[in-house]
Amino acid sequence: MVFVDSYPKTSKLVRSEFLVSFIALGIGALFGVIQALHRTGVFRGFVSSADYYTILTGHGVLLALVFTTFFIAGLFTWAVASSLERELPQRIAWSAFWIMLTGTVLAAVSIIGGIVGSPSILGHDLEADVLFTFYAPMKAHPAFYIGAALIIVGSWVAGLAYFKSLWEWRSENPGERIPLQTFMVLTTMLMWYVSTIGVAVEVVAFLIPWSLGLIQNVDPLLTRTLFWYFGHPVVYFWLMPAYLVWYTILPKLAGGRLFSDPLARVVFVAFLLLSTPVGFHHQYTDPGIPSGYKFIAMTNTMFLLLPSLLTAFTVVASVEHGARQRGAKGYLSWLRNLPWGKPAFAGCMLAGLMFAAGGFSGMINAGMNINYLIHNTIWVPGHFHLTVGTAFALTAMAISYWLVPQITGKKLRQRTIATLQPYVWFVGMAVMSNAMHRAGLAGIPRRTAEPTYDEFAFEGVAGTVGEMRIQIAIGGFLLFVGAAMFLIVMADTLLARRGGTLSVNGTIPEPLSGADHSPRILDNYKLWTAIALLLIAIAYGPPLASMVADGLFAPGSPPIPV
Amino acid sequence: MQVHRFEKVWLGAAILLIVGFIATIAYGSVGVGVGMVDDTGGQISAEEVQNGNTGTQFDDPGVVKEDGQYVVYVVARQFQFSPGTGDTPIRVPAGENVTFKVTSADVVHGFSVVETNINTMVIPGQVSEVSARFNEPGTYGLICHEYCGAAHHTMGGSVEVVPPEEYDMQQENIDQSADDAQAQEEADQ
């Protein structure tokens, strides 16, 4: 029985969520290649350097917020429905979809307004080139902030649908362990609820009234701190769905099964506990924050390496088990016995491999002292293009090759393109990201249309700046080609007629060490959420209290239009 | 709960790595004394910085000597550092301890001296304080690394580090010319 036949209503929802995410991916990738060519000076004919920042804002918001959130909503909808074996509560789940879509349209319109000459709408210039981080006192059109808030509120409502499913399932299956995929989805959503409070307070309590002129001033440091309270957990909101795929689906694609269900649960609980009290590591170089608080955040950030290191072990062990099931021998030669020609498997594995490199550059970022070398240099985008841009994005694309046939009942089309696509992405990212990391060590800044100055020239530590520029341009172009290849496969598959039998199915084999071995306390969400909040209070209570001690809006800044 | 032997070994190694990282950084800040940007710069009103009536050295930014120490006051605004950009590079002597105090008159900026670890955010309402010693004379690039508006990419400048004897000479010249100007003014009256 294919998923679409068992759960036709939920399938329609997943298809709609994926469709929005794919459209965002296409536009975001186009903006990405424009930037790669512009800032490297290879071709600057698309936009002026002043409009570059509008394109950059669009790239960040469409890919890091819209593509991710909608894809995760689709993946989670599928995971909850298939692991609890029930249709999702339709009314809640669809309301979530429409709220998120409304928010997306509002944000997108306000960004695009900047390209078409910032017309005045409702007394404010329609523009939003404030980048993904929208630091006050730089001001966007109120529609941008309202749109961003709606995307997040929509994701909260989507979470309600998953929880409601669990409650219904619980009443029918008393005493049973929560299925692993649902456990992962709900732990991720709890982390998301806790961490988005920061950005919700920032946007709803401060930026929306301030952009509308209802309050005169906001404190730039306080709003920045609230942003980063959310700004690092959001990367775990991207990463944990990739982990869900790597833990529960990838072993099966390798021909094996998950090594340990209990350890997978421990890893997810660790993310719930540790994700939020780390945000200050983005503010190591901020004035106004005592270094003691930065040190506490640094300690938390370092411990957050633990669940990822455990994941590396469990996922590789599970894949190796799969290879040995297929007759592989030897310490490393088992790697040859894996299905590298299957796009879903190859994409997930290459994404995981890239994530290992991204994890190492992340350890540098987390270091309180060496962070000074690379803060706000192009090293940072080099790093997160390995994490969000590969660990998440490539996993999402790869698993779509496996999932889309199941939610449509249609066979995957354009198989040759699909088979090559993860490799194109991998090569493009390897070329672009390594050059970005090296350019960052040379001090070349991120977030700039033209990283060249009259007064001095950058010098590469290894390799020349010119060579790095060319690599970034070539890598960015290959990534655009990779995104286009993916979208061609998806468009052809979604538009095809149904017929024939699928070569994929949604059956997930039992783990080697099952849920029965895991302590019941792991399912105690109330306990974990309470500990998570306590850790946040320790990390954020005193610094936030000292920031608001002189008043919520002081030292304040009036809005400055971009 | 069943934990495989290899898992235990891996877990132990991972924790060791993490504790090791934390230990090196703790040693760096306590033992070696690697300074952090923190709250020592204090707060300031961004609007007063904008209007030039803070009543502090930020109203007339530049290099001053405070308690025998070189202190550089810098105001960042769209799209320049004063001093720092264009005809007014920041001039400091080599081999001396120099403290930079930087604040913003408008939006969030960055303040980074290329090839050094002087790298701080500049946030309206706050004063960033960073100390450094340049051992090598020469011209260092100065950039704003946080997006601050449509011409952000033009916000670059330089820090000129001169040998101490040369620096004193130039300072004396400046003082001398100031004295001359004053004498001239008095003579005019």
From TrEMBL, chain A:
GO annotation terms (biological process): aerobic respiration
GO molecular function, one term: heme binding
UniProt keyword annotation of Kinase present: no
Membrane protein topology class: Multi-pass membrane protein
Main location (coarse class): membrane
Entry's family note: Belongs to the heme-copper respiratory oxidase family.
Name of the featured protein: Cytochrome c oxidase subunit I
TrEMBL record, chain B:
Region (Disordered): 167-189
Places the protein is found: Cell envelope
EC number: 1.9.3.1
UniProt keyword Lipoprotein, yes or no: no
InterPro entries in UniProt: Ba3_CcO_II_C, CcO_II-like_C, Copper_CuA, Cupredoxin, NosZ/Cyto_c_oxidase_sub2
Lineage of the organism: Archaea, Methanobacteriati, Methanobacteriota, Stenosarchaea group, Halobacteria
Record keywords, A-Z: Copper, Membrane, Metal-binding, Oxidoreductase, Transmembrane, Transmembrane helix
Presence of keyword Nucleotidyltransferase: no
Domain Cytochrome oxidase subunit II copper A binding as annotated: residue spans: 67-173
Name under which the protein is recorded: Cytochrome c oxidase subunit II
TM region positions: 9-30
Pfam families: COX2
Organism expressing this protein natively: Haloarcula hispanica (strain ATCC 33960 / DSM 4426 / JCM 8911 / NBRC 102182 / NCIMB 2187 / VKM B-1755)
